[in-house]
Design brief:
The chain has 1 helix and 22 strands. By secondary structure, the chain is mostly beta strands.
């Protein structure tokens, strides 16, 4: 009898123990998986490397200029937590952001100018041509500089200029001639804006962001505009640009003048546009060259030659290269000049120096 009672008693204990163990295992199997946040951090710092900390531990860092990282962050339930930002090697916290425990994928942006961290940034995509060096400045901080052709397609890429902004803020990005403090042109940058394009031309003194050059009314033609600034103290304007037809294999001074002419403004601004007709080809391939002449003439040069070594060479005033004709396209010529004595031919030449900036304004 006693044995039966003991057997029943120990059997019950075993059942209770197994039941408790089974419940424990069930609880472990059914517990919630960890709350993991996919965090993307990106932005710009003009000076130092930044570190990003959660719960006192560094979870990522961004280098100078454009930087970013992606990290999986384990959260406690759906509770939000702080993401602190500091300079690498420092303990002072520059800014604090929030990682929301209820949002599975999050983006945090920043812009650090060496003194302040902004909540967001707006990219400004710059493109164009500069006759000399210009700087991009905001709040008297130089963000970068360019000269010559710059931007996509120029062969000299310029990093996108990111401008730090806080919510509701508007800032002014300036372009200045290097070594000066006067703004030549401003670009307004508003918080929340998408990428801002900024295309301009710097002629050495002023900035232009609007150059009207086409398309031609007749798609078989091409639009031509030009600006001219003489570098020689013997220049006596005003001047015209006259188009000539040149047969392949001949020197430019044996070309034939056309009726197509551009009056070049004396202040160095761009001329009115004209449409160039396609050349009627014969058995000899022809192309266009141009000559800089005194206003209203075909052969007279717009220079005072009184004290120059004569004779003037017959090629004087002519462009060295032919004009690339593109039906439906345009050419935006910026022209200056140079003078040199040719001791071989025994005379003086004055030649146009030409840059077509049209490719940088497309």
């Amino acid at each position: 009898m006693n044995l039966n009672i003991k057997f029943i008693f120990y059997s019950c204990l075993c059942l209770l123990w197994l039941s408790a163990f089974s419940c424990k295992k069930l609880e472990l199997a059914e517990s919630d998986p960890p709350n993991v946040i996919n965090l993307f951090v990106k932005g710009t710092t003009l000076t130092d490397t930044l570190e990003f900390l959660k719960d006192g531990k560094v979870i990522g860092q961004t280098e100078k200029v454009h930087g970013g990282f992606n990290v999986k962050v384990v959260m406690v339930d759906d509770v939000s937590t702080a993401l602190k930002i500091r300079l690498k090697g420092h303990t002072e916290i520059l800014d604090t952001r929030t990682i929301d425990g209820s949002i599975k994928t999050q983006n945090i942006t920043y812009y650090f100018d060496g003194e302040k961290i902004y909540a967001d940034f707006v990219p400004v995509n710059v493109k164009g041509f500069a006759q000399g060096e210009v700087e991009f400045v905001i709040d008297d901080k130089v963000l970068g500089s360019v000269s010559g052709a710059f931007g996509p397609g120029s062969g000299k890429e310029v990093p996108i200029i990111n401008i730090g902004v806080d919510a509701g803020q508007t800032r002014q990005l300036q372009v200045r001639k290097k070594g000066t403090t006067k703004s030549l042109m401003n670009k307004e940058v508003k918080a929340g804006a998408a990428a801002i394009p900024w295309i301009f031309y710097f002629d050495g003194e002023k900035v232009l962001d609007k150059i009207e050059a086409g398309p031609p009314a007749n798609p078989a033609n091409m639009v031509l505009i030009a600006s001219f600034t003489s570098k020689l103290n013997i220049f006596r304007g005003p001047a015209d640009l006259v188009l000539y037809e040149l047969e392949q294999g001949k020197p430019s001074y044996e070309s034939t003048a056309t009726t197509m002419r551009i009056e070049l403004p004396e202040d160095g601004t761009f001329s009115k546009s004209i449409e160039i007709l396609a050349i009627q080809q014969t058995d000899r391939i022809k192309s266009y060259v141009f000559r800089i002449v005194k206003r209203g003439t075909l052969t007279e040069l717009p220079y005072d030659l009184t004290n120059e070594i004569l004779p003037m060479l017959p090629i004087a005033g002519f462009s060295a290269n032919t004009l690339v004709f593109t039906p439906g396209g345009s050419a935006i010529l910026t022209i200056s000049d140079r003078k040199e004595y040719d001791d071989w031919d025994g005379g003086t030449g004055i030649y146009p120096m030409v840059i077509d900036i049209a490719p940088y304004f497309k």
